[in-house]
Design goal:
This protein is α/β, with parallel strands linked by helices and 590 residues long. It is built from 16 helices and 30 strands. The structure holds oxalic acid and manganese (II) ion. Oxalic acid is lined by residues 80, 209-210, 259, 286, 308, 437.
């Protein structure tokens, strides 16, 4: 029999530790009211209605986009701020050259003054959340306190939030403390601080997803990567996808690509008509927590329960599953509007923007109509190909791990690492052109090891050693691959069609794992020959395919020198194994 709502223990009474912390934050930030989030659809509907009444959310065309809303952020607050994101470990060395660091005492003192009275005249929302299925031993919990109702609503979509999470916290004891205030939305008073030794986060001055939905990047990657190292698992910036072959067997692959490089699209891939009988099942589109299992395999859960995806480029041709998914009950941020109040962004085949992402009459002279980092926030349950195993407490077994970046040249379409140790070097060497997901110049190639440059909560040198240690514990380690969908020809045209055709590359990997596909050994790893890929119905020319599968020794010798230079920054924390693996590659290049 269901328990009547009035008979449930009031949320503040469930966990003494949470209540005490909430009380101390109340004293510091002096909100007008406190709302403890129960979770569930009626609370979401209530939050949405409040935001509409306050003019912060705009309902969209109810016939074409039922239950969808538009949120416009402050124009100065549209992306992650890596330059204002800090790891505040006791030792600077532990944060490493890959992170900005501040002494924890100094960071707390500075933020304390920012938070003092910051919620005056505002409601403080207390959001207990669970990253991962509530019944999973791999899941971890946190509590976010925020003064932004938009953030609270987004957290209800992106995490398992509310009473169930607080009950688990009460049982488990520990939780990550995440304190957030939008403050004055002043870029001069904006900081995203992580205290991994205290399992706490303080975020001030931004309402943007990656800076403000603290369960996502701050907890599930930066804090969790630190926790994972101490507990023997991996927290990674990876999608998780199940590939079902025409015989009905499903194998899972986890892929790490930098932000806005197509993780959401790959996780929802639509097989091309020329590959009949294949099916794809999404487990996650952005974050994977990977645990060595008692069976010697690596098992993955997606800690999130929703998608915070990039809108531009999403359309029925590039990702019909995502396009279908966001046609109802979706929160759009910073997209443009058509005359009949439909959301619009660059890359849609039809429609015309009349208002741009800032609500101004659309004028191409002002730049794109939708912000290049405009987003959709939607429950994973809306995904038509959401995996029936996405909620499994023990996760799904991973057959292959894939790294990749956005590179015009150098990196071939795909190659396989010689073994796990070489695979760690391949991951550590990833480079990619920057995108609009973070504030800063777009299109600049930078090293982004394992796609974790903005997200690893500790020294990369220690992180790579941890990867090596985890691999050593796996009797059946996944094979490791590198892909590059973004290679271009001399005239700047993409050589590979991408999207659904990427399935051909994934099936080659899975056939390699089961010993069914060939490859040729090169200095950088094992590459498919054109005949090793399933090219039935593929329209790519033989010349383009040859170019995609070529390794230019001169370019690679330069690349190896650049990787050596980069790894050198990690000095005594760099595992000797990575240097030795790089020597092997260099020697083979001749
Ligand atoms: C994201 C990102 O939003 O990586 O997922 O920036
Ligand atoms: Mn991401």
């Amino acid at each position: 029999m269901a328990t009547a709502a009035h008979m449930l223990t009031p949320l503040p009474q469930l966990s003494r530790a949470v209540a005490d912390w909430v009380n101390s934050v109340r004293e510091l930030t002096t909100p007008r009211a406190i709302h403890w989030c129960e979770g569930g659809s009626s609370e979401m509907a209530d939050f949405t209605a409040q935001l509409v009444r306050a003019g912060e959310l705009k309902p969209l065309n109810a016939r074409e986009f039922p239950g969808c809303h538009l949120y416009r952020s402050n124009p100065n607050d549209v992306a992650r701020v890596e330059h204002l994101t800090y790891i505040c470990s006791r030792s600077q060395q532990d944060a490493g050259p890959n992170n900005h660091w501040m002494d924890p005492g100094k960071a707390h003192a500075m933020l304390r003054e920012f938070f003092r009275g910051s919620m005056r005249e505002r409601t403080m929302y207390v959001i207990p959340y669970c990253m991962g299925p509530l019944d999973s031993p791999f899941a971890r919990c946190g509590v976010e306190i925020t003064d932004s109702l938009y953030v609270a609503l987004s957290m209800l979509i992106m995490t398992r939030a509310g009473r169930g999470a607080l009950e688990r916290i009460a049982r488990d004891g520990g939780f990550v403390r995440g304190l957030h205030s939008i403050g004055e939305l002043d870029p001069e008073r904006r900081f995203i601080m992580h205290f991994p030794e205290e399992l706490s986060i303080e975020s001030y001055g931004s309402g943007y997803g990656g800076n403000a939905l603290l369960g996502k990047k701050c907890h599930a990657l930066r804090i969790a990567s630190w926790q994972a190292r101490t507990e023997g698992w991996l927290a990674e910036h990876m999608l998780i996808v199940g590939i079902e072959n025409p015989r009905g067997e499903t194998h899972y692959v986890a892929c790490a690509f930098p932000s806005a490089c197509g993780k959401t699209n790959l996780s929802m891939l639509v097989p091309p008509a020329s590959l009949p009988g294949w099916r794809v099942h999404t487990v996650g589109d952005d974050i994977a927590w990977l645990h060595p299992g008692a069976d010697g395999r690596l098992w993955a859960i997606n800690p999130e329960s929703g998608y915070f995806g990039v809108a531009p480029g999403t359309n029925p041709a590039t990702n019909s599953n995502a396009y279908q998914m966001i046609r109802r009950d979706t929160l759009f941020t910073n997209v443009a509007l058509t005359a009949d109040n439909q959301p619009w962004w660059e890359g849609l085949p039809g429609g015309k923007p009349v208002l741009d992402w800032q609500g101004r009459p659309y004028d191409p002279a002002n730049g794109p109509a939708a912000h290049p980092n405009s987003r959709f926030t939607v429950s994973a349950k809306r995904n038509p190909i959401y995996s029936p195993h996405a909620e499994d407490a023990g996760g799904v077994p991973i057959s292959a791990l894939v790294f990749g970046g956005r590179r015009r040249e150098v990196a071939p379409l795909v190659y396989e690492a010689r073994d796990w140790k070489h695979g760690v070097l391949v991951g550590a060497s990833v480079a990619s052109e920057t995108t609009a997901a973070a504030v800063g110049q777009v299109g600049v190639t930078r090293r982004d090891p394992m796609a974790m440059q903005p997200f690893c909560g500790y020294n990369f040198g220690d992180y790579w050693q941890h990867w090596l240690d985890v691999g050593a514990r796996l009797a059946h380690a996944p094979r490791i691959y590198n892909v590059n969908w973004f290679r271009r020809d001399a005239s700047g045209k993409f050589l590979w069609p991408g999207y659904g055709e990427n399935l051909r590359v994934l099936t080659w990997m899975l056939d390699r794992c089961s010993g069914k596909a060939g490859a040729v050994e090169t200095a950088i790893g094992l590459l498919p020959r054109p005949e090793d890929l399933n090219t039935a119905g593929l329209r790519t020319s033989p010349e383009a395919l040859a170019a995609l599968l070529s390794v230019d020794p001169a370019l690679w010798r330069k690349e190896v020198a650049d990787i050596r230079d980069y790894l050198g920054k990690f000095a005594e924390r760099l595992p000797a194994t990575l240097g030795a693996e790089l020597d092997i590659t260099e020697k083979r290049l001749g």
